[in-house]
Write a structure and sequence with these properties.
Layout: H1 3-10, H2 26-43, H3 50-58, E1 100-102, H4 111-121, E2 124-129, H5 134-139, H6 141-149, E3 153-159, H7 167-175, E4 180-184, H8 187-190, E5 195-200, E6 207-211, H9 217-220, E7 227-231, H10 236-250, E8 256-257, H11 260-275, H12 295-310, E9 315-319, H13 326-345, E10 351-355, H14 358-372, E11 379-381, E12 392-396, H15 402-407, E13 415-418, H16 427-435, E14 440-445, E15 466-467, H17 470-475, E16 482-492, E17 498-499, E18 502-503, H18 505-512, H19 516-529, E19 538-541, H20 545-557, E20 562-566, H21 571-583, E21 588-592, E22 606-609, H22 616-624, E23 636-644, H23 651-659, H24 663-672, E24 682-685, H25 687-702, H26 704-714, H27 724-731, H28 735-739, H29 745-751, H30 763-769, H31 779-789, H32 801-814, H33 824-832, H34 835-846, E25 857-858, E26 868-869, E27 872-873, H35 875-881, E28 898-901, E29 906-912, E30 929-930, E31 935-939, H36 949-955, H37 957-960, E32 963-969, E33 981-993, E34 999-1004, H38 1010-1016
Parallel strand pairs: 2-3, 3-4, 9-14, 9-15, 10-12, 10-13, 11-12, 13-14, 16-23, 16-24, 19-21, 19-22, 20-21, 22-23, 29-32
Antiparallel strand pairs: 1-7, 2-5, 4-8, 5-6, 6-7, 17-18, 25-26, 27-33, 28-29, 30-31, 31-34, 32-33, 33-34
Helix pairs in contact: 4-6, 7-11, 12-13, 13-14, 22-23, 24-25, 31-32, 31-34, 32-35
Length: 1021
């Protein structure tokens, strides 16, 4: 906001809305304003005065870094002596510092000519394109040869998309021009259609071209192509994103290095399949290569690690939609278990894989053989096949008769995997599970709820090791994209009775059944948003049998063949209805209380949400009925009809489950139209529906404390309030609900009139600091924090050296500025004078390890420190744990993103992946990001150069004997408040580019947690 603009606004009758400029983006925003003002002033003054004017402006802020103008000339070229003859002559028509749109039009250079000139001064060249053609390569033959002569590094990423790449072109790039080429063979899921060049220069004048041109003659010379020239001078954020994205792709194991002598046959087969020259069902086998998990599968495997290693739980259930590769996960998990077993037991674990169909078993056996690189692994027990070794058996449940089980000892199989575990209540499955006692049991299912009401989680003490979130499956392109439309239906539900998190079905039935006005709105919305109602396959979710039958009758009257089914419909009749929907004889089925596998029809392309559902579980179950992929199904259309709700109804639960965002983010997304959904999916609310939902979400945010009090009062038993764990379990609330905005459980109990121990003057401040302990997730820290908080806890001087370090972490978490205490023990004495605080810390620590999402390990080379890789820490804790925060230097003394602990010789790099959590700010992005699970790109502080103390230490840390430890968090704050950092562990210097700031690539000693890789990556999942 400038003074001139402010004056103009005062003179207008228009209403202005203001928003803050994110702190991280403010330097770029202000610099652009200054640059434009200076440009206008320079344009109006004599040429001879311009240099003096600029120097006068620069001198306003004198510093050693001041770079004054010497004369108004520009450097156009630098050459190494002796290379003139081999160095291409000329420069690009577009200056290196400018941008342009090239369209191969008359009077402007074509892309091919510009690329040839760009190569002449490039120090590195990167090409990303969907396909490479021989004729396109010929156009660039001379400059490519010059690159080779100068020893310039050329990297090429391409695909087998549509079989358009020509092998001869790739062979020539590798053999003649020395290029490194990587190919993505999985063209069906790649979705890579980018065409772009990047020219990196040691001078910092990087340039690139992004547009429609692949490496073909027509694209480079005379085609109707559009390409934008970008520049690190004019568009630094675009170049930075290009570099980050390309480098991330380059480190993606899905892009395989190409060697013509080794891979020519593989490439030929892949191109033939993609071009249609080979049958469409042909499988391109990438033999000899280790099968790697996809990002969502990494998350599942890590969750299994946590269950076994952190919680010592060995009966685990994985829930993920059909098509997400659960069998591959099981095979990858067995590969890891086999390696552990061989090291620990000196033998392979015996495996039993159980399914109910022969086709599933045969596919599973092929998967295990490919993952284990063992073509003779496993035996079938199904039909006429019977094992001879009984070491690795893939058996149908029908083949595992009582006689067979009697012949197999209870502990014979070390690992048992049961596919489609929702069948487990059947007698044959129950007999199997009751008989076997494996070291590891793994259940796989897409549908935990059975049609008879049994939840298979009951076999696992009510737990799920991992349930793949909807948005993760969508981001991984595993499910059909959805277009969700929220439509206001005019109904008023405020008079309907409401209890236990939902409306009374009888009251809803009275509102909906026979409501012709609402039905007209439904039919109108359907015809407005579905391409062809006569070809759709739809499911409508109703509140009662009467409601379903009413809707089916009204749809039929409107010319849409429909039927109604419910959980009470006979199985044969229900199957007949499903068959009619598949064949198209029926276009819409209206269902009541049916969420089992029988309703999981891949062909369903339209869902009608005709009853309000607060439960996120039920909502996602309903949505999941239509998210299966099917031939000819491009998108799932979801129509959700929204009325005027009671204040108890919480829209936020379903939308947060759908999008994976926090409550605060949900409010912003509702206002802005959900701009960050996975590719292909849309969430649109009409104006009235948006207003209704926004008011409801804002109301739930305002009344959260009152709701918490109500929930805790409802949980009182025999006059006793539940402890923190019990309250969270019975209310279904997350920990963040209690501790957001510096809240505490003690405050909630007192607000509800429930008894708690009284405290002293410091109690209020200590209660506000308890949120700083909500992220604790390792057992060692949780145990000592609880001991130190206990009224009869140990004295500080009675602790071991390591325990004292942990105690100091707790001290600074509670008192970042030492709190006025005269000693460490003085602080703990003060804490123990507040029994309510002490009790709440102990309750919080009891469940700390249950919150663990990663397996913590000691830091390599720093095992004596209590900071563990993959554990979570507030800034104050990690500074104390690394020895930076001491009695002489409090934890509040560091507000930067770096800290050098002289005593331990450790550099701590504290990284915000998003510099501002409230906004999309391109100018601050693509500075710190994951290149791969073990490589991290980090940008230093602006003052850091190669010759500065910190810069030299980063580059030479191994030689000088110091360590570098990386910590990341998604944003500075989260739902609770100041966000915790995840410790990624120790790292080693690899390389850097530039200075002030230095862009350093670090090699981590331990792979990042999969969730951090996804959050920190410059590209989508």
């Amino acid at each position: 906001m400038t003074r001139r603009l402010a004056q103009l606004l005062r003179e207008t009758t228009l209403e202005a809305t203001y928003g803050r400029v994110p702190d991280a983006a403010a330097p770029d925003v202000l610099a652009r304003h200054v640059a434009e003002a200076v440009r206008k002033r320079l344009a109006d003054m004599p040429a001879g005065d311009r240099a003096d004017y600029v120097n006068t402006l620069l001198a306003v802020d004198p510093s050693d870094e001041l770079d004054l103008v010497d004369r108004v000339e520009q450097l156009t070229e630098l050459r190494q002596p002796g290379l003139t003859a081999r160095w291409p002559q000329g420069r690009p028509a577009t200056p290196l510092s400018e941008v342009a749109l090239l369209t191969n039009s008359r009077g402007e250079p074509n892309l091919g000519a510009e690329l040839r000139q760009e190569m002449g001064s490039a120090d590195e060249v990167d090409l990303l394109c969907a396909f490479v053609r021989w004729h396109g390569l010929r156009v660039l033959e001379e400059p490519l040869a010059a690159l080779t002569a100068r020893g310039i590094h050329l990297r090429v990423l391409t695909t087998t998309y549509r079989g358009a790449t020509e092998r001869r072109a790739l062979d020539e790039l590798v053999r003649r021009f020395g290029a490194q080429v990587k190919i993505r063979y999985d063209a069906q899921t790649t979705r890579l259609h980018a065409k772009a060049w990047l020219f990196r220069r040691g001078s910092g004048f990087d340039t690139g071209y992004v547009g429609s041109s692949n490496l073909s003659k027509s694209a480079l010379v005379d085609g109707l192509e559009w390409n934008v020239r970008i520049s690190s001078e004019a568009t630094p954020t675009l170049v930075r994103k290009f570099e980050a994205t390309f480098d991330t792709y380059w480190n993606d194991p899905g892009f395989l290095g190409y060697d013509p002598d080794r891979d020519a046959d593989l490439l030929d087969r892949a191109l033939a399949v993609e071009s249609g020259a080979s049958p469409s069902g042909t499988v391109v086998s990438i033999s000899g290569l280790e099968v790697s998990p996809r990002p969502h599968q990494e998350l599942i495997l890590e969750a299994l690690d946590v269950e076994r290693e952190v919680h010592d739980r060995h009966r685990n259930l994985v829930i993920a939609a059909t098509g997400t590769g659960k069998t591959v996960v099981a095979a990858l998990d067995f590969r890891r278990l086999r390696a552990q077993w061989l090291e620990r037991e000196g033998r392979e674990p015996r495996l039993l894989f159980v399914a109910h169909r022969k086709e599933i078993l045969e596919q599973a056996l092929r998967t295990y053989r490919e993952v284990l690189s063992d073509g003779v692994f496993g035996e079938l027990l199904v039909g006429g096949s019977r094992p001879s070794q009984w070491s690795h058996v893939f058996a149908s449940i029908q083949s595992l008769s009582a006689r067979v089980l009697d012949d197999v000892g209870a502990e014979h199989f070390d690992v048992v995997v049961v596919d489609e575990f929702h069948h487990a209540e059947a007698v044959s499955y129950r007999r199997l599970l009751d008989h076997l006692e494996p070291a590891e049991l793994l259940g796989l299912t897409a549908t935990p709820e059975r049609g008879d009401g049994v939840d298979v989680r009951s076999f696992f003490d009510g737990r799920t090791a991992y349930e793949l979130p909807l948005w993760s499956a969508l981001e991984a392109d595993l499910l059909c994209p959805f277009h969700y439309f929220g439509v206001a239906d005019g109904t008023d539900l405020r008079g309907v009775d409401y209890s236990r998190g939902g409306y009374e079905a009888e009251g809803l039935d009275k509102v909906y059944t026979g409501n012709d006005a609402r039905t007209r709105i439904v039919l109108t919305a359907l015809r407005d948003r579905v391409t062809d109602v006569g070809r759709m396959r739809a499911l409508g979710f109703c509140v009662s049998v009467a409601h379903a039958e009413y809707m089916a009758r009204k749809f039929a009257d409107a010319g849409i063949p429909s039927a109604a089914i419910s959980g009470k419909t006979p199985a044969a009749e229900r199957e007949r209805a499903f068959a009619m929907l598949r064949s198209g004889d029926v276009r819409c089925l209206f269902a009541v209380d049916i969420f089992n596998e029988g309703l999981d029809l891949p062909d369903v392309d339209t869902l009608l949400m005709l009853r309000p559902t607060q439960s996120s579980t039920v909502f996602l179950q309903q949505l999941g009925r239509g998210l299966r992929r099917a031939p000819g199904k491009a998108v799932l259309t979801v129509l959700d009809f929204i009325g005027q709700h009671r204040t108890e109804f919480r829209h936020e639960l379903r939308y947060r489950a759908l999008t994976g965002v926090t409550r605060d983010q949900l409010e912003r997304d509702l206002e802005k139209g959900f701009p960050y959904l996975p590719a292909g999916s849309q969430l649109v609310l009409d104006r009235v529906a948006q207003q209704l939902v926004l008011e409801n979400v804002r109301s739930s945010l305002r009344s959260s404390k009152k709701d918490l009090v109500r929930d805790v009062q409802a949980a009182v038993s025999d006059g006793q309030a539940p402890d923190l764990d019990a309250f969270l379990a019975t209310s279904g609330r997350p920990l963040s609900d209690v501790y957001r905005k510096a809240g505490s459980y003690t405050d909630i109990l007192r607000a509800g009139g429930l008894p708690t121990p009284s405290g002293g003057e410091q109690e209020a401040g200590l209660l506000r600091r308890l949120s700083a302990l909500a992220q604790v997730d390792d057992r060692e820290r949780a145990d000592l924090y609880a001991r130190m908080a206990a009224v009869d806890g140990p004295r500080y001087d009675e602790l071991s050296t390591r325990e004292r370090s942990i105690a100091r972490m707790l001290f600074f978490a509670l008192w970042p500025n030492r709190g006025g205490h005269d000693s460490w023990q003085g602080g703990f004495d003060a804490l123990r004078e507040h029994p309510a605080v002490s009790s709440e810390i102990q309750q919080l620590m009891r469940s700390a390890v249950e919150r663990a999402e990663h397996v913590p390990q000691p830091l390599r080379g720093l095992q004596h420190l209590p900071v563990l890789s993959h554990a979570s820490y507030r800034r104050e804790e990690l500074l104390a744990g690394l020895g930076w925060a001491t009695w002489e230097r409090s934890a509040r003394g560091n507000i930067t993103g770096v800290a050098w602990s002289e005593g331990e010789r450790v550099d701590a790099l504290m990284i915000n992946l998003r510099k501002d959590e409230a906004a999309f700010t391109p100018s601050t992005m693509y500075r710190d990001y994951a290149l791969s699970p073990t490589l991290f790109h980090w940008e230093s502080q602006n003052a850091t150069s190669e010759t500065s103390t910190a810069g030299r230490r980063y580059v030479t840390h191994r030689e000088s004997g110091s360590q570098v430890v990386l910590f990341t968090r998604e944003a500075p704050t989260d739902e609770i408040g100041a966000a915790a950092f995840t410790c990624l562990g120790t790292a080693r210097y690899v390389e850097h580019r530039g200075e002030r700031p230095m862009a350093i690539t670090w090699q981590l000693d331990r792979r990042m947690p999969p969730a951090v890789v996804q959050a920190a990556s410059a590209v989508s999942a």
